[in-house]
Design goal:
Layout (H helix, E strand, L loop, with lengths): L3 H16 L15 E2 L4 E8 L4 E8 L4 E14 L5 E6 L5 E7 L1 E7 L4 E8 L5 E13 L2 H18 L6 H69 L14
InterPro entries: Emp24-like, GOLD_dom
Organism: Monopterus albus (Swamp eel)
Main location: endoplasmic reticulum
């Protein structure tokens, strides 16, 4: 009995760390389609049903600029409301930003490294479905880019003092062009969102006018028929002699 107890104790000690190890997957219950692993920019549309809720996660490093642009393109259903509730949470669970509007923009500097949660709720519409255009991603601000360039330049000067600065000039020009193209693409996405929203709003107004015109036309025809029927019943006609004429 004295020999079996130490063996049993060693088995328990060795088995507990294996079963109680740390999870390396940040969100084991979430599919890869809802996790975005740090690309510069994403641009797509999503349809939210009545009382619908959609959440997405995007990876960002500390010091990066996280941005989110959204716009409601169209709303269908009874008693529809174009307001959309948007919340952005940090990897630790803290609320970073909250917007409740038909369109908006969220831009902040990431203070934590991890997956930032973006949730879009359609709780304003009890019987309405909406389509939302999303554009989000990460980028470096000008100050952070300047700091990183200065550090790179110092390292290059220490390692390669005798080389000229032609490569650094080309690299700086490339970064500037890349930054300008990136911001131009953001402005283009915003313009496309506004254009698509105006187009869907025009279609909605056209359908609304057509339905009301049809309803008013039927109302006018029905009221005319009822008036004619009412006037006709005011006159009492009897079939008799020629002297007896219809009287009111």
């Amino acid at each position: 009995m004295l020999c079996r107890c130490p063996c049993l104790f060693l088995v328990v000690v060795l088995w507990v760390p294996v079963c109680g190890g740390l999870m390396t997957n940040p969100h084991p219950s979430i599919s890869d389609q809802e996790l975005f692993w740090g690309a510069d920019q994403y641009d797509f549309s999503v349809v939210l049903p009545a009382f619908g809720l959609e959440c997405f996660w995007h990876f960002a490093h500390r010091g990066e600029r996280f941005y989110l642009n959204f716009m409601v393109q169209w709303v269908a259903g009874l008693g529809h409301d174009r307001h959309l509730s948007v919340t952005v949470n940090a990897p630790s669970g803290l609320l970073v930003s909250a917007v409740d509007d038909a369109k908006g923009q969220v831009d902040f500097e990431a203070e934590e490294t991890g997956f930032y949660q973006m949730c879009f709720s359609n709780f304003h519409n009890h019987f309405g479905t909406m389509q939302v255009f999303l554009s989000f991603g990460v980028y470096y601000s000008d100050e952070d880019r300047d700091k990183s360039r200065e550090e790179e330049k110092r390292k290059k000067e220490e390692v390669r003092r005798d080389l000229n600065n032609t490569l650094s000039v080309i690299e700086d020009a490339t970064h500037k062009v890349q930054s300008y193209v990136f911001h131009m693409f953001r402005y283009y996405s915003s313009g496309r969102m506004r254009k698509s929203a105006d187009y869907f709003l025009l279609l909605s107004n056209s359908q609304y006018i057509s339905w009301w015109s049809t309803a008013l036309s039927l109302l006018i025809v029905t009221s005319g028929y009822l008036q004619l029927l009412f006037l006709k019943r005011l006159f009492i006609s009897k079939t008799g002699t020629e002297q007896e004429k219809p009287r009111c």
